[in-house]
């Protein structure tokens, strides 16, 4: 018998639990995709995703399935995030992003609190998990108030908490505000880990596009020589070839 497609049934949200979401994801899994995902997300010994487990569900299918479970509540989302299975955690974050975006007042704050608890517990622990939630939850929550929580996260030596602090600045950058990123930058400029370099350079590039090229060039004039090669490459990717070469030559 074929496994049901992610869109083939509608749960009763008054009684649905994390285990129901897990079962639906597991039923939609594919062993070949799981094997490829495990390689792609570097789950081998000593790699950044060491020990992560995949069942083999595509991101579009996870998002389709997540729509059926909107409204299951924070406790069940937190239980999903406690799973060892990557797709369980990503689907939990898809749900958390949607719930946060549709919440108001204390409910909105509560979703952020749950998210930050999970970040500190090490459950938002791969780059796709961070990149699909940091801006959308903690970054959006901080717009219009102090961004000091992003500085606290970026100052943490933990790879994933630091990346949350960097990517969280994107919510401000989208609004033309590079100040939080420029405050985070001194905390991460010396970190040569690839996934920090890429996040840091990516946010600088976005700041140049959305906050003004002068913001990026001003930063590079002062700091290009101290940046890692990967971060500098990402930051200068969209500059003219001559300008790009000038900054990269400072390394």
From TrEMBL:
InterPro entries: ARM-type_fold (IPR016024), DNA_alkylation (IPR014825). It comes from the Bacteria. Transmembrane segments: none annotated. This is DNA alkylation repair protein. It comes from Mycobacteroides franklinii.
């Amino acid at each position: 018998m074929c496994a049901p497609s992610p869109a083939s049934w509608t749960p009763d949200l008054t009684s649905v639990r994390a285990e129901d979401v897990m079962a639906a994801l597991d039923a939609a899994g594919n062993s070949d995709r799981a094997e490829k995902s495990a390689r792609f997300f570097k789950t081998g010994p000593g790699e950044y995703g060491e020990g992560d487990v995949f069942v083999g569900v595509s991101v579009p299918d996870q998002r389709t399935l997540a729509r059926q479970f909107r409204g299951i509540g924070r406790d069940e989302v937190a239980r999903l995030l406690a799973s060892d299975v990557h797709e369980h955690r990503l689907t939990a974050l898809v749900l958390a992003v949607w719930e946060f975006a549709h919440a108001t007042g204390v409910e909105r704050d509560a979703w952020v609190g749950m998210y930050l608890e999970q970040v500190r517990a090490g459950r938002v622990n791969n780059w796709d998990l961070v990149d699909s939630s940091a801006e959308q939850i903690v970054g959006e929550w901080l717009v219009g108030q102090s961004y000091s929580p992003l500085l606290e996260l970026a100052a943490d030596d933990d790879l994933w908490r630091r990346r949350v602090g960097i990517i969280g600045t994107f919510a401000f950058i989208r609004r033309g505000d590079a100040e939080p990123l420029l405050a985070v930058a001194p905390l991460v400029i010396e970190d040569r880990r690839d996934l920090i370099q890429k996040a840091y350079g990516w946010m600088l590039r976005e700041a140049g596009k959305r906050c003004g090229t002068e913001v990026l060039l001003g930063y590079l004039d002062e700091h290009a020589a101290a940046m890692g090669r990967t971060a500098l490459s990402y930051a200068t990717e969209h500059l003219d070839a001559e300008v790009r070469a000038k900054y990269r030559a400072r390394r």
